[in-house]
Amino acid sequence: MNFDIKTEQISDDAYVISLAGEVDLYTAPEFKQQLLEVIGQGGKNVIVDFTSTTFIDSTTLGVLVGGVKRLRTNDGQLSLVCSDRNITKIFEITGLDRVFSIYASRDEAVSNLGISQTSS
User: Fold this and answer.
1) Full 3-state SS string of the chain
2) Going from the N-terminus, what domains does the chain have, and what CATH number goes with each?
């Protein structure tokens, strides 16, 4: 099973979580743990980068919805980076494209936060 997760702090309260491979029932718990850890460390603006992701399932959507709820109570936001049409279609079909800001590139998502990136 190919899955990789990388977290990067790009400002005091902004993080990018990059996921690669398949994010499903088996790998979503690791993603959830990482997301909760970032929020626990004071992350208010979290970008989840699906650029290298090949598959997501309903478990992944559940983790994202839980994350956005938790962030909103702290005036935070969860943004997504996704250029894969098959994955963006999942968000459209479920109506979650209205819950999350979805960007085609990481740079676009970061610039929308209005912060300057400390590293790339």
Assistant:
1) CCEEEEEEEEECCEEEEEEEEEECCCCHHHHHHHHHHHHHCCCCEEEEEEEEEEEECHHHHHHHHHHHHHHHCCCCEEEEECCCHHHHHHHHHHCHHHCCEEECCHHHHHHHHCCCCCCC
2) 3-109 (3.30.750.24)
Tokens of 12: 């005091």
Angle at 119 between CA 3 and CA 102, to 5 degrees: 55
- Torsion angle of the four alpha carbons 40, 45, 51, 54, in this order, in degrees rounded to the nearest 10: 40
CA angle centred on 56, ends 84 and 1, rounded to 5°: 110
Do the Cβ atoms of 39 and 71 come closer than 8 Å? yes
pLDDT in tens, the chain (120 residues): 589 999 999 999 999 999 999 999 999 999 999 999 999 999 999 999 999 999 999 999 999 999 999 999 989 999 999 999 999 999 999 999 999 999 999 999 999 987 755 544
